[in-house]
């Protein structure tokens, strides 16, 4: 008598637990379950519900999508064997199936590694927020000494936080925007130059991002040649570091967004529109996409294209949340009125 196949959820749980290198005891502990219970789930001796399976694999670091992917793969492989599971595969097909299994295992291991890196990145960003708050309480001289001397300030996340704080400060204080941008660049250079802190290609992208924000600060301060120089340096570093940020820790849209601000300031509106389209092409979503679309609509208005500007404002409205950022919605309504007048 042919033994019935294991339930797909049982196979998926055993596979994902193996990929994550967790013991049954470790997995059960977080849910108040004995290792024997986990073994019974995996052996099909105890019914494993979908809800329970999702809870268990979440502990291993996998989401529902990963569970679905493994379940689909289990079903596909069983279908390749035969509907009844009793007809043996020819040798060539068995080898192909074995390769498929190895490929899936490699993919799952890589995905688990990526999830762990993203969790570490989240922790580093939180730590960078605390470091910035500490720096904000210092004098300018103390801030310079801190980022130059203390190892705790050697953080890629802090470099990015200082850069973004520079952009926030720009409307109110060109001097503070310059200071934060220069500090961010210095931190980025130290991080990129330190061994084992970040991969070389990521260090290039980090420095390039810092240069983009320094260029923006120089624009606000009225140093347009210096801003052009900074953006050229940014583009060069991003070209050299291409592919160095597989986890998407650095926002690729920001350099195009900041370039558009400079080109608009210089009256080079066609170039500003190209840069804004490049920013949108990076896959922006949410409020960030809304902000860029607002800038694009303004540039279109300045180019004498009110109809296209109105269509772009309608796109921007889909991404803006009046309860979260009412000022942006006011800007949108005002620009709609202006373009309707045109």
Residue-averaged pLDDT, rounded?
A: 88
Instruction: Give the number of DSSP strands.
Output: 0
Residue windows where pLDDT falls under 50 for at least 5 positions:
81-87
* Percent in helix: over 70%
For the structure shown, list the relevant keywords.
single chain, 342 residues, mainly alpha, 16 helices
Describe it for me?
The chain is globular and about 75 Å long. It is 74% helix and 0% strand. It starts with 7 loop residues before the first helix and ends with a helix. The protein has 342 residues and is mostly helical. Residues 81-87 have low confidence and may be disordered. α12 runs antiparallel to α13.
Brief overview:
This protein is an all-alpha fold and 342 residues long.
SSE topology:
Layout: H1 8-20, H2 24-29, H3 35-43, H4 50-59, H5 64-81, H6 91-136, H7 140-149, H8 156-169, H9 174-193, H10 200-220, H11 224-240, H12 253-265, H13 269-280, H14 286-302, H15 306-317, H16 326-341
Helix pairs in contact: 1-4, 1-5, 1-6, 6-8, 7-9, 8-9, 8-10, 9-10, 10-11, 10-12, 12-13, 13-14, 14-15, 14-16, 15-16
């Amino acid at each position: 008598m042919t033994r019935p196949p294991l339930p797909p959820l049982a196979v998926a749980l055993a596979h994902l637990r193996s990929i994550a290198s967790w013991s049954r005891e470790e997995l059960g502990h977080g849910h108040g379950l004995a290792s024997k219970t986990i073994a019974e789930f995996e052996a099909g001796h105890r019914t494993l519900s979908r809800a329970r399976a999702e809870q268990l694999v979440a502990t291993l670091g996998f989401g529902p999508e990963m569970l679905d992917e493994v379940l689909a793969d289990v079903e596909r492989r069983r279908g390749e064997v035969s509907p009844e599971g009793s007809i043996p595969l020819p040798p060539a097909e068995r080898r192909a199936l074995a390769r498929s299994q190895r490929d899936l295992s490699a993919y799952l291991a890589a995905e688990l590694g990526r999830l762990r890196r993203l969790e570490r990145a989240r922790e580093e960003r939180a730590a960078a927020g605390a470091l910035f708050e500490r720096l904000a309480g210092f004098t300018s001289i103390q801030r310079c000494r801190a980022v130059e001397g203390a190892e705790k300030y050697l953080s890629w996340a802090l470099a990015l936080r200082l850069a973004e704080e520079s952009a926030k400060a720009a409307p109110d204080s060109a001097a503070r925007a310059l200071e934060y941008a220069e500090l961010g660049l210095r931190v980025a250079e130290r991080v990129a130059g330190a061994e084992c802190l970040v991969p070389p290609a990521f260090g290039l992208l980090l420095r390039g991002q810092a240069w983009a924000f320094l260029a923006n600060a120089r624009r606000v301060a009225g140093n347009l040649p210096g801003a052009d120089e900074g953006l050229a340096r940014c583009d060069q570093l991003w070209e050299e570091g291409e592919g160095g940020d597989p986890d998407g820790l650095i926002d690729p849209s920001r350099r195009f967004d900041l370039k558009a601000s400079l080109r608009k300031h210089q009256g080079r509106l066609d170039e500003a529109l190209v840069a804004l389209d490049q920013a949108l092409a990076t896959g922006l979503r949410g409020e960030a996409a809304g902000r860029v679309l607002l800038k694009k609509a303004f540039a279109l208005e300045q180019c004498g294209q009110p109809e296209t500007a109105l269509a772009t404002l309608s796109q921007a409205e889909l991404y803006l949340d009046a309860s979260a950022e009412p000022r942006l919605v006011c800007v949108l309504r005002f620009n709609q009125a202006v373009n309707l007048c045109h």
